[in-house]
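In this supplementary section we document a worked example of the pipeline. Step one takes a protein sequence of length 387 as its only input; no multiple sequence alignment statistics are reported here. Step two produces a three-dimensional model, which step three serialises into structure tokens for compact storage. The input and output of this example are shown verbatim.
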Amino acid sequence: MTQNPVQLSPVGWMSQLSQNEMALITDHTNTKHYHLFRNCVLAVLNSGAETDDMTSMLNKHKSFAIDLIRRERGVKIELLNPPQEVFVDGKLISGVHEHVFAVMRDLLYVESIYPNHSTESCSGSAATDMVFDMLRHANALEYNDGINTVVCWGGHSIGHTEYQYTKEVGYQLGLRGFDICTGCGPGAMKAPSTGAAIGHAKQRIKNGRYVGLTEPSIIAAEPPNAIVNKLVILPDIEKRLEAFVRFGHAIVVFPGGVGTAEELLYLLGILLHSKNQSQQVPLVLTGPKETSDYFEAINAFVEATLGIEATQKYRIIVDDAKAVAQHINNQREVIRNQRLQNGDAFSFNWSLQIEPEFQIPFVPTHENMANLHLHRDQSSADLAANL
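The serialised model returned by step three reads:
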């Protein structure tokens, strides 16, 4: 059944677009740009959906379409046959409304300013400049200079016990004035922000930030939750990971799947680099008591592959949300002093050395996987990159 189109007024500077920007996302014959824009907006409109099946979601909403309409006061987005779960009495939830225009902002920006973002030439300082530029363009760096942003990684499909624990960790962090940065999806990405929002409310913190970093290939499987009040869509997994580690001041890892393992190995590989030995990045692995075996297995794997030095880069705290928050809070001055000694910014960790192996997008073909070097006759940092 065809529904009446829904028109959304723009937020922020998105009310004014150039002719080229309009063409990028309104030309339905340009499958690359239009379908990328359409599918990312559809993913945002599936906020709260209890599914991570991207194919099922796209098939369910085949009739969904999106257009831009010029008006005297600027540009409006028109949605045809959007999912109805994100509407309240016919009106789109405000947080989802913001996310729709965040998609437009970031996709247009990367295609207009960085058309070669996926090539091997976009590594080293060029990749870092791009990550910084996109965070700045989204105003995410504003208010990020208080050593108060904790990145939370973990599974998007978790049980009730784990969800409540991750929410409690967020709550304890919120009570101590920390903001939360996650992958923006459900599960262990939603719960910490929800908990922190309660902690902020109790402390009368009115400008709490719940930052979500995502990218087009996973946004459909992990639709942004509406708690996120600053959404940034990076162009690929590698730049998203770099944004996490340069933007955050501390990192908490909850139990998760292969994506969470990738994130942990990524960070360990960076911290094991000889030029990063002075870096202060508090890293805590935590979960409820039921996950103790999980962390024992993770720790054993890290020690067996990367060595005992890698296990010294993190602390495992099981079933004690308050201890997690207290440990990170106690490291605030250590982080601040290290940034001052390096002459580094508080809002973005420029001095962190990240090698091209961690920046160039990896395409997981059979050939590329077979060519990975997974033996111990290399540095731990290089092995972590291959793993």
